[in-house]
Amino acid sequence: MSSKETYNVVCLKWGTKYPAEYVNRLFNMVNRNTTIEYNFYCITDNAEGLDEAIEAKMITDLSLVGWWYKLMIFKEDFYGISGTSIFLDLDVVITSNIDDLFTVDPGDFKIIRDLKQGFNSSVFRLSMGSMAFVWDDFLKNKDDIIGRLHGDQDWIAESAPEQMNTWPAEWVVSYKKQCDARASRSYGRIGQWARKHGLITPPQGKAKLPKGARIVIFHGKPDPEDVQNGPWDMWKHAPWINENWH
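Request: output the structure for the sequence above.
Response:
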């Protein structure tokens, strides 16, 4: 690996689902858990509130929605950014050093597996400009692709099946599936209301942080803030969030 390799972290903040504080926390976590030099970029439609050290890349074409903007990173020229980039969703918690995610198997595209089926784009790595066909082919048929696929990760896997390389499974884990986080069945909004009013016993015990985990993903609900100080619906309290998510 050349000592002159450029490393980047890219995230996406679109709409109002997550505030700027989520981006700032992600930036802080990356800072604490890397020993290599890197650039931090946020693709966004609103840069207000972002830490001044974060370089915002403004979305100029607002014809897409939500996670589909992730595919922009596959452009042949993505805001002039070069080198190796790791994309991180805003609702991840980094729990230990992530240098190896940048450097292992240099040049390979890396992504994580979804524990139901297929792959999950909460965390992936790309050599910038090396897979421009993912974006180009998406643009040619975006209405059809958006209509028949659940999300960007499905399109990435469909368009580049031979490049779906993964990191060691223990490096990036799911709070829901790998942290012993589920306590009981969910009763949806009724259950949340009942627990709030003491009619259903809150989940007991603590969610565990698996050995070797570098990043914990929070796909869907709950978000980290939901379980950082106590249980939420059927999901256990994860006290290690407060230790890392700030």
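Residues 20-32 form the longest helix (13 residues).
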